Amino acid sequence: MAKLADVAALAGVSVTTVSRVINNYGSLSEKTKQKVYAAMRELNYQPNSLARSLQGKHTQLIGLIFPGVSNPFYGELVQTLENQLFKLGYRVILCNSVNDAEKEREYVRMLLANQVDGIITGTHNLTVSEYQQISAPLIAFDRHLGDTIPIVSSDNYAGGRWQPTR
Asked: Which of the chain's ends, N or C, has fewer CB atoms near its CB within 10 Å?
């Protein structure tokens, strides 16, 4: 696996310059950027998202925890979320909990260990207190998990009620 130093050597620049290109920091010539990008492509170099997060940078990863994608509703929802997040520069880690509390708990631990930038959960097998202990930004889908946790839901009762036109 290629390292930052390998990219720098192939591009004929310093490790600091490669880092600046990757992080889009400072003023660099277009020629230098293109040399670094060409070396990255040739070596199939991918920045280490965990190392970046340890340096205080975002991982650009969002965890999605849903009961599964075989249900057409969840499949379409996950696809839409992934498409929109991708457009914003994020990648997703999809976790299929199959409505299993222990599996969901393990996925939450794994996502937090990978320092994801946020979690969107549509499966709710854990207790509200467990969700409130999650330090990453969290959005709940269709279930109230606490006053400080945003929720995306609909009022199915009001939405299904007939209203005569006037």
From this structure: C
Who's near 138: CB < 8 A, 6+ residues apart? 118, 119, 120, 121, 131, 145, 149, 150
What CATH number was assigned to the domain covering residues 61-156?
Answer: 3.40.50.2300
Q: How much is the pTM? A: 0.62
Ramachandran sector of residue 95 (left: φ over 0; alpha: ψ -120 to 50; beta: rest): beta
Output the six-digit token pair for 80. 């839409």
Q: How many CB atoms lie within 10 A of CB 61?
A: 19
Give the pLDDT score at 120. 92
- For the chain, domain boundaries: 4-47, 61-156
The amino acid that residue 67 corresponds to is P
Cα–Cα–Cα angle for 52, 58, 62, rounded to 5 degrees: 120
